[in-house]
Design brief:
It is built from three helices and five strands. A five-stranded mixed barrel has the order 1-2-3-5-4. By secondary structure, it is α+β, with helices and mostly antiparallel strands. The longest helix has 28 residues, at about 50-75. It is about 45% helix and about 25% strand. A hairpin with a 2-residue loop joins strand 1 (about 90-100) and strand 2 (about 100-105).
């Protein structure tokens, strides 16, 4: 029983796909695609040297092109802020005097406890404040 080269390349591609699924390392997927390309060359009658060159060229090209794109996407911050991140930078109205020890504000239609960023600063009822941070259920304002 003589197995053709393209079958070995496909077995290699599947073998490289298994660690891709287990470890979630995309490099294994790129090597698997390279092995698939080498299987195509083997199926078309290419020699072992051309099969190996196609494997190396396709794999390296994918790593050189796809990896920087993936890293750039991973480094990007999400476009849509949700939860407490969406409240940072918003304006609120003071309901009860806010100072370094506490107070109440109306933020995004809800009543929040608040304190000032600078302990010596205070805001009276009706004033507009900017939310700098959210700590637990307390808005830090200035």
């Amino acid at each position: 029983m003589d197995i053709e080269a393209w079958v070995w390349w496909l077995i290699g591609a599947v073998g490289l796909g298994i660690p891709l699924v287990i470890t979630a390392m995309p490099e294994f997927g790129m090597f698997a695609v390279g092995a698939g390309a080498a299987a195509v060359v083997a199926g078309l009658g290419g020699g072992i040297v051309s099969q190996f060159l196609v494997f190396v060229i396709v794999s390296v090209a994918l790593i050189a092109v796809v990896r920087p794109i993936a890293n750039r996407h991973r480094a990007q911050q999400p476009q849509l802020a949700t939860g407490i991140d969406a409240l940072k930078g918003r304006q609120a109205v003071v309901l009860e005097r806010v100072d370094g020890s506490g107070g109440r504000i109306k933020l995004a239609g809800e009543i929040w406890s608040a304190r000032t960023l600078d302990a010596g600063q205070s805001f009276d009822a009706g004033q507009q404040v900017d939310v700098v941070e959210i700590e637990g259920a307390t808005a830090i304002v200035m």
